[in-house]
UniProtKB/TrEMBL annotation, chains A, B:
Keywords: DNA-binding, Transcription, Transcription regulation
Annotated HTH lacI-type domain residues: 13-67
PANTHER family per the UniProt record, alphabetical: HTH-TYPE TRANSCRIPTIONAL REGULATOR GALS (PTHR30146:SF109), LACI-RELATED TRANSCRIPTIONAL REPRESSOR (PTHR30146)
SMART domains given in the database record: HTH_LACI
Taxonomic source organism: Streptomyces griseicoloratus
CDD domains xref list: HTH_LacI, PBP1_LacI_sugar_binding-like
Protein name, UniProt field: LacI family DNA-binding transcriptional regulator
DNA sequence: TTCTCTACTGTGAACGCTCACAGAAGCATG
DNA sequence: CATGCTTCTGTGAGCGTTCACAGTAGAGAA
């Protein structure tokens, strides 16, 4: 029983305790802690032994106070909160970022900027230097928080190409256009010629790019573009359902649909089913994301995989580089067609 | 242009700057910052004006260094990570906790303890005092991290009744048994008599309680208990699908199913559909959670709402109370039957 | 007047760490 | 022998707060 456990916590050992235990000075312990340059092997060893023995863990507040760094980063969501809950992609991204940061021993602070007040509070918190950088999820345009952070010089990496922030903001994104091309080519290769599309929100680069890829392939295949085959959605399940209904009205002969998100594709499947169309026999359906929703759908969705694990890893890499003084960077990652039952 | 914006960030104002600006001492500013007791109205006013003028934000690291508090809490997930992504409840809980904490200006640190290494690192981080308390999501038994934290005297609030941690750990949970009772009563009230159940994992209190509620109502209604009507799952969609298949084999005359989670209920619906049973005409299906999955299902699920917003709010309240020195507490919250299309 | 009490204010010390600097020791070079 | 260089080590200062304490001013009571 080394620990009296009556509610209060014992005062943890300090760098001083370690120094005394190892028979060296605070400075030497600090040097060992920070890379071990200019430390003799003997001292190195003694300090490490003392750290193990005392169970020392550095006090990050004391360190931050003098270094000016916080050694933590924020994960900021300025989207309308609903999307967060409905879209499984956020989970995957959040998890990936948390783990990638954990590998660097950097905690992730979750920040949800929903209301005006929350936005103000969070902006203050960040610009006050309480985090070293921010991972940003905000695909819609005109985001005042992001703009303010950028102006304040806070290292920032967005997920997906941000709008209206100039070229000074780093971002990591999947190759939306190329992914869309792959999917539409796949649908054409099945012999379908009346290929519809349910787009994402067209005020986001992702939405625009996926639509552009669709058009490109139709052009290159010599299949005419028919605007009755195009309806727009907002990535939500409900908008997919509504979109499919509109599509069936405008172009009843549709024999394939490229849907710009898996969640919308779920809605499309439901609407088609209700209309008595069989998938994939009557209408082939292709999604986008390869989110958990793709496997949960029935039939399971053929979709375009966004490499979320790589996206999150790259976001963290770019952010840390930027915190380290490097210039902003843009990273585009390749997508992959995943064939399942819906095509 | 008050801010030179060439990459570096300007040194933020300190309490000293505010004191000089307001013509008072650091101590007075500090008192205003911490509640304003024993401060004259005039000084109060002057300090607030100076804070607004300078844009001062307290340096939390300096504060933490001396107070010993970190004014932050961890949100710790020790579940197998997959559940996190599949189960929409986690999102709602995470969001609720983040927002409830934000109201107290307390940041939430997301901690995912998947691997052994991660567990060790996180345990060290927490016991070193880098967070004041922990919100714990870990319904399965034998969680070494939780036990270690409890032993170290870290304020801890679990979501759902934890197993094997003695009574010293606070928790907040929905009234699982009562919810199950409501649902089964509802199914009986529809005239169904062959009511099956797909349970949750039976090494968790939630799973056990929901099954107990089911049995209680059958007993009280004089409907005999038939073990062929009972299959067990693990809250995952896939296990619901498998469970329903087993149920149809063991008891083909089943006319209602109480499923212990919405996600499993999705799987049950899929399996029933495949087997040619109509819902709700042939088989009524009741879920549990009222997660987004309930509305996404087709037909939309009748389910038992867990009051996630209240659960998260209570978790935060209890945790902060405990950090403030109060004793651990258990909170049980009522559930609510939500009728939709599946019954 | 003198004392006590309350309301308020300022000051130095401390929290635990890193950083800059000074210096010691060892070795090669002039 | 002095000089310089490299490698290593210890020391004092200071990061921006809070806290304990000392002190002041004014009001009321003796």
């Amino acid at each position: 029983m080394t620990m009296s456990n009556t509610g209060g916590r014992r005062r943890p050992p300090t760098i001083h305790d370690v120094a005394r235990e190892a028979g060296v000075s605070r400075g030497t312990v600090s040097r060992v802690l920070n890379g071990g340059h200019y430390v003799s092997p003997a001292a190195q060893e003694a300090v490490n032994a003392a750290i193990r023995k005392t169970g020392y863990v550095v006090n990050r507040h004391a360190r931050s106070l003098i270094t000016g760094r916080s050694d933590s980063v924020g994960f900021l969501l300025t989207e309308p909160q609903e999307r967060f809950f409905e879209d499984p992609n956020f989970n995957v991204l959040l998890r990936g970022c948390t783990q990638a940061l954990a590998a660097h021993d950097i905690p992730l602070l979750l920040m949800l900027a929903g209301t005006r007040d929350e936005r103000r509070r969070i902006t203050r918190y960040i610009t006050a230097g309480h985090v070293d950088g921010v991972l940003l999820v905000s695909s819609h345009s005109g985001d005042p928080v992001a703009e303010e952070l950028r102006a304040a010089g806070v290292p920032l990496v967005a997920c997906g190409k941000p709008i209206g922030l100039g070229s000074k903001v780093s971002y990591v994104a999947a190759d939306d256009r190329d992914g869309a091309r792959d999917m539409v080519r796949h649908l054409l290769s099945l012999g379908r010629r009346r290929v519809g599309v349910v787009t994402g929100p067209l005020d986001t680069p992702g939405g625009v790019e996926r639509l552009a890829g669709y058009r490109e392939v139709l052009d290159e295949a010599g299949v005419g573009f028919d605007e009755r085959l195009v309806v727009s959605g907002d990535y939500s399940r409900a908008s997919g359902e509504a979109g499919a209904e509109r599509l069936l009205t405008q172009a009843p002969d549709v024999d394939a649909v490229f849907v710009a998100s898996d969640l919308m594709a779920q809605g499309v499947l439901a609407a088609l089913q209700r209309a008595g169309r069989r998938v994939p026999e009557d209408v082939a359906v292709g999604g986008f994301d390869d989110s958990p929703a793709a496997v949960a759908a029935s039939p399971e969705l053929t979709t375009i995989r966004q490499p979320w694990d790589r996206i999150s890893a790259e976001m963290v890499r770019v952010l840390l580089a930027q915190i380290g003084g490097e210039d902003p960077a843009a990273v585009i990652l390749p997508t992959e067609l995943v064939r399942r039952k819906s095509t």
